[in-house]
Each structure stands twice: as structure tokens, then as C-alpha cells.
Amino acid sequence: MTKKIKLRDAIASDLKKNQYLKQLHQELLRAYGLQLFGKEFQFKNKSIQDLLVFADIMSKTEDVKLEQLSLEIVICLNKMYPQSHSIKFYKNQIFEELGNYSRPELDNEYKPGKSVDSIIDSVQRVNEMSLRHFPTGKGYFIGDQKGLYNSISKQLNSFSAPTSMGKSFLMKMFIEEKVSSGEQLNFVYLVPTKALITEVTNDLCNKLGDNLKDNHYRIVNHFDSIGTGSSLTNFIYVLTPERFVNLLLNNFSGAIDYLFIDEAQNISKDDSRSTVYYRIFDLLRQQEYAPKITFASPLIENPEIFETLASLEKGNVLKANLSPVCQIYFLLNEKGTFEVYDSMTSEFLRINDLSSYSNVYYLKNLLYTLPGQKLIYRNSVNNAVNGANYWYQECDDPIDKKLLKLSDYISKQVHPDYCLSTIVKKGIAYHFGKVPDEVRNKIEMAFNDGKINTLFCTSTLMEGVNLPADNMIIDNRRIGNRVMRPFQFKNLTGRVGRLSSSMLGNIFITATSDMDYKKFKELIRSKDMTAVLSITDLMDTDILKAVDVDLKAGDLTLQNVREKIKNQHKFDTVRKFSLIYLNNLQNSREGVVTRHFSNVISSEDREAIRKTFKEKYEDHTEVDVNFSIDQSMKLEKYVKKSDIIYPHILDENGDLNTNSTYEFLKQLGDIYNWSKYEPELAISEENNIILQDYAELLLRWMNGDSLHQLCDFMIQYRKKELNFLDRSQKIRDNYGKINWCGRRNNSLDESNLSIYVLLKALDTIQFKFGNYFLKFSHALMKERQIDKLENDWYQYVEYGATDKNVIWLEQLGYARNSAFAIANSELNIILTDELGNKVLLRNRIEELKRPEIIDETERIIKNYPDLFISEAD
Q: 784, 816, 843: which is the final residue of a domain?
């Protein structure tokens, strides 16, 4: 019996084999490439019309590959012939067929004449638009967005979608709808970086406005934010995973109704930060929270993989494969080939007339020629900075007067020697994790506004950063020293193209060797978009066996594991997984970590591990993944038997108390066993002064030195002490000059190297020292049975200040520099009301005439309206 197939499927099958369509599509790609570079090209009217008909048919097939191809055709043609009414007509029809009613208004200028069919189409269009209308504000869901949005309300939900699908936008809209409707709920929105905390918080404040006050909501970014203890307020926590863990560990008693995990692909990263996600779900289970959970990730084949962390029944899994934005891949190599990728046939098509762009000067040629804004991906900080400096020297563009203010801001915020302050004058910048957050925010804003045209970036682009670029140039297939996986590559390249306008991104990939040429082709063609959990990737059988041996011996330093793993970062990650496993084992709790370890560690060995730790530590356990039982028990004993306290910041003469701080850090090193667990901080024969360096910087940070002051201090101090805060010279070897006499290729000059060393050291102070101080502060408060320390270095490190007014302002959401400017102003902006509560005089804030502070105030006042009064009040 002949198998029946649907007409639509039969048409789709025929289209995929249609040779004329393949020929026309390849002609289009070559013509588009020539047009992009301002070259002459010929494309017959008949070919254009036939392509439009093909595109129209493909948009109706419900075959994702053909639907994507139909979008690519009409968007390319529209770019090539922007005045063509015929192309606009087909583009409108295809967009609507694929569920996109959010086009730029200019696309609606062509309207077909009235007829019975057009009236029917109009009614259907109105009905479809009403179904797709956003629940709040103006606009319409595109493509699969509505299905993704509706799934958020389910108990467990994991969706993946192309970068341009607006996953973050959907989750924020869901919060807006719930808050605006008056529902009393608590939300936790997790983002991978501190910079994204600011972005998401600002966006939510702008969306929610007066609804925050009217419906008794507050957005908070830290467990000690102002007002978090109120039982009458509902909260929207916008946090990094680390801050959320601190919230859960600090006697958090509120309910959590919804948990959103944005950029969930970070659970697959093989670094120690990924372990925090696993710990979150262990803590949620222990504290019996059952929020509705949404994992949101870029397009991967298996989004359900993240649901295993939740240990709930199988949830709702959705993949939105159709992207509303298209990318065209161009491949160049040094042998003179310039090719464009044909997604229909998976072939690379030679464009002979563009071979001149494939030589060693490819970057200069591309940057000079390509229209629109450009992102240049670099695999390292050095390559990003030096690429930006190179282009600043080569670029003929004059200094842009509009960017002089940004240059001045960076110079004052960081340092005049910071090369970013110079290169932005020509609309050029760089972007990576160690660029100060406030500067990075300004760079992103300037790029979004079109003021910065060329941006050199590292893999921070994969952390949820959305920049409206037309073009991306990639010349390395690595992230640091690690080769990109296909889903990472597609996540990176998916960052180009603008949903609001051109909807087309161009990716130029330059291969500098035959091997890279081959591997780049594999990445472009690859359909392997599967993600692997970091625990699966790192904890293989050999490592698990070594963990088993160490834990049975009660060895929390994991010496057998260390023999197998030489990389310190990888070892730290494995150790944290092992500590999670141990805690679950001691408390007889299940979880994804326990199950994974149990694949290798037998039930007899598990019992042996329990027995060993019972004999050695009795009933003591450690819930914080940053510490092991031996560390916490030694801390507890030390605090009980000694009078150890935090030193004073200043000594008797009013100078920084460096000697006492150094001795205190040495004590902490002994308590926490840094010789085993933090070799980069531990005192040793080869490295005997690193803690003295940190003592100096730590005190300056806590005492309130601005970033500019710290940069100036570092630059001047390192002229006397060349390797201050880099005693092992690891940073110098990777990023800096070999010596004073000359500059190495791809190296930072001494001033910028010193600034980079400073920013890395501040990271260590805020994250590593911050964790140790938090643990120490809790131990002191528990022993003394008090709720608060007067001299709490954890708080001083977290906010970079000892001034209570500055800390209060930062807890409200002001940036550190802004908080100091307000607190130290002679305008007396901070007052105390009759109940002893602090309030702010809004009109005096405006008198500061600091645009960034005024902008911050506009946001914060929506979140804390009762704390702002006017002079008349």
C-alpha cells in the first residue's frame, strides 16, 4: 500500500531537491557578497521574481530549514534593492506567514488593492495580530515567542531559541504582566554577570515604573539590600548565582514563586562557577522551596538537559528553531579564496571578485570596506586590546567630537593612560570581562546609539550581551585556549543582525592556516548543537575513582585528584563538585551530583566515606561549596579559643594599617589552609610577599579610594615594584612587556598592564577575600551571639567603603562612584527624618549636574519612592 504524505510535505521535499532554486539561491549569495563590498553585480529581474515566488511558497511549508531560507532570500533582496515595492510586498507577506508583525513601520508602505481576497486576508491578519499582541505594552509576539511565553507559567520549563528570539525580553515581560496585574509573588531572576544585574534591573524599573510602588514590589540585587526584611513587600531578586546562594544561606525565609535562569548554557561551562547552579538546587530542595523554574538558553538541541538539576518530574521542553534574524557566513583564507556559505546545499561558493580581501591585510580591508557597525571577536584580552589599538592607528576617521565626553568620562573614571579613553575618540572600543562595569555599560550604550562603530570583543559576548551589530569578524576558533564547541560558535555568531531593522548579520571568518580553514568549515556546517553538563564533561571515571580514594581516606585536599589534574581552575571545579557530593552523602540527600558520582562510587564505598567523616568530624557538615568541613571547623575553633577580630582600617597615626592587615591575612591563610586550597595566595618561599601586596590594595579599596586613584597608585607603585600584585609574573608573561627596554608584540604597555593587574586583583579581593570574610563574619557573630559587626570587612569589601552613607546608597542601587559623590557632596543630600530614617533630597541630587547620577536616580526612585523628598517637603 502506497504511503500517503501531505501535499505540504511533498512540496517541501521537492523544493529541497529543486536545482533551479539552488542555482538562483547561489546567484543571490554571490550577488549579495559583491553588493556588500560595493562591487558591480548582475541579477536579472526574472531571477528576482522567481526567487520571491520560491520564498513565498517555502514560507508556507512549515519546514524550518525552508522557512529560514525564505526569510534569508527576502531580507537579502530587500538589502540589495531597498526601494523595490515588489520585494517589500513579498517580504511583508512572508513575515506575516511566519508570525512576525513587529516589522519597522516603513515596511508597511506598500498596500495591495482592495478585493474579496484582500478583505479576507485583512480579517485574518487582524485576528492573528490580536492573538499575538503582547499582554503588556505595544507590540506582537514573533514566530514561536508566544509559545515560549506561555510555557513560563508551567512548573518546570526549559526552552532554547536563537539569540535574536528575545528570551530575556519574554521573562521580563512575564514579570511585568504579573506585577501589573497585582498578583503577590516573589521572583528570582539569575544572570551570569554583575554587569547584567544592572542591565536587567534598569530594564525592569523602566518597564514597571509606578507599578512597583502601587503593588508593593521591590527589585533587589543583594541579600542585604534595603527593605529585604519587610513582610509586606514582594520582591524581584535580580542576582548572580553566587549572590543567590548567599541569599539562601543567610536565613532566607521568603517564598520563591518563580525562578528564571537566564543564559542557562553556563551550566555547561567547565569552570568552578558552574558548580554554583548545582548547589542552588540542592539548597532549594533542603529548604523545601518549589518555585516554578524556567531555564532559558541559546539554541541547543537538548534544552531538557538542564532540567535534571531540578530533580522534578519531566518538564516542558521547547525549541524555537526558526530565527527571525538571518546570518550570512563568509569564509576567507590567506591563499586568496573568498567564499560564502550556502545553507541550502552546505557548500562554500567561491566569489572570485572578492579575493583581494583574503590576504594578510584582511582586517584592514574589511574594516575599511564593510558598511554598518562591526564586532571583532578575539580569543584573548591581549588580542582584543591590541586589535583595537591597531585599528585606531590605521583608521583615517577624524576624532568624533560627540565621543569626547565618553573619552573624558573613561579618563576620569579609570585613568588618562587607559588606552580605551583614547581609542573611543574614533568610534573604536574593546569589551571584555575586566573592563570596569560602569565603563563597559557606557561602551554598550554608545554602541547601541551608533556612536561606536567598531568593537573588539572576547567571549563576554556569549554572556547575554546584546549589541546591535551588522557585521562580525572572527579570526580564531578558540575561547582562550579552548576550542569552541559548535553551539558556542552559533551562540557567538547569532549576536549579529538586528531584529528591529536590517534583520541580517554578516559573519566574516578568516582562517590563517589550512587546519583552521578546515575546522571553521566544520563549525559553520555543524548541526551538532548538543550541550553537555559540566559535571559530565569534567567528572569522568578516572577522576571519580580518584575522588573516591581521597574521600575514603578523609582527604579533603584531594591529593590523588591533584596528581591527575594540573590545571588549578579545573581542580577547583572538581573539588567543589566533590564537596557538594560529600554534603549530600552526609545528609542522605539525592541530586544530580550524587547520582553522577554514584555511577562510579559503589554503595560500599559511599558507606565507607560516611564512616570516615563521621569518625573524623562527628556530625559536622559544610553547606557552603566554597569551603570544606576542615576549614569551617578550624575557623569555629579559632574564633572560640582566640580573640581574633578584624583589624582597624587605619592605624594610630591615621595611616593605612598594612602591618596588622598583613598579619590578619596570614592568620586567615592558616585557618583556611591556603597552602593547600589557595596556592596563589599562600605564603611560600617563592611567593612570600603576595599577601603584603593584597593588604595594601585591600585597605585602599575598603577605605574608599576611587578606581582612578587605585589605577594611579598602581601605575606609580609598579614603577618601583615592577611585579607588585603579580609576583609570579604570570600576568606579565601573558599580557605585558618582557622588561623595561622594549615592547613585545601583542603586549600591553606598562600603564595598561598595571591597570589590568589591578582589575584582576580587585576581582580576587571581591570574590575570594569576600567569601572568606563573609564566612569569618558569620563565625564571629555566631560566637558572640550578635546580629551585626561594627567593623565588618565583608561589607567593606562588598561595597568598597566604610562610610555607612556610601554603603546605604550602594544598597539602594547607586554605583560606587555615584554613592561617594552623593555622600561627600557639600549640598547635604542625605537627611534623617523624624523617625531616624535616611532620606534623599532629589532636587539637590540634580544640582550635582552629574548625568550618570541623575539617570541612576530616575531608576532608583521607582524602586524606593518613599526615600526621596523635595526641598519643600
A: 784
